[in-house]
Amino acid sequence: MEGDIKSGLTKYLLKYIKMLSSSSKYGIRAVIYIASQPVNNGKIGIKKISEALDLPTPFLAKILQLLARQKILSSSKGPHGGFSLLRDPKKITLLDIITTIDGNDIFDSCIIHNMPCICVDEKKLMCPVHEDYVKVRKGLVRLFTNKTIYSLVKSASREDKVYI
């Protein structure tokens, strides 16, 4: 019965705790969009990106500038300015984008307590869902490491049902 309670609690928590921030989601969508555009057009303006993805321009601009500071995107100002990929899309992973925008909290923090994992108190006690979440966390890291922008663009171009 104890295993059922832990499993049920883990499923409940994962369903209702947002795993990624809106910033990360917007960043991922924008990078996929930029990567999907023909390279011969050069830079893509922020207004075009925000309109195509129906995202707020000022918020998206801050996210894309952060990605540019971390050398994932290239950014230039002016009438012919905009954003483009700075790195090969085969080498940009979801993990790169998520950790650039949100940091490592999703991978390092306890799912219940507001502190690093396995630091519930000075005795290094584990939270009630630690064992289950360790598996989920490893799966997330594997997923985010293995999914590249290139693979996501290819998936989106093959499937009519993929929505960025």
What does this structure look like?
The relative contact order is 0.16. The longest helix is centred in the last third of the chain and has 17 residues, at about 130-145. Helix 2 (about 20-35) packs across helix 3 and helix 2 packs across helix 5. Strands 1-2 form a two-stranded antiparallel ribbon. The chain has helices at about 1-15, 20-35, 45-55, 55-70, 95-100, 105-110, 130-145, 150-160, and strands at about 75, 80-85. The protein is mainly α and about 160 residues long. The chain has one domain (about 1-160): Orthogonal Bundle (Arc Repressor Mutant, subunit A). The chain is about 55% helix and about 5% strand. The chain has eight helices and two strands. The chain is elongated and about 60 Å long.
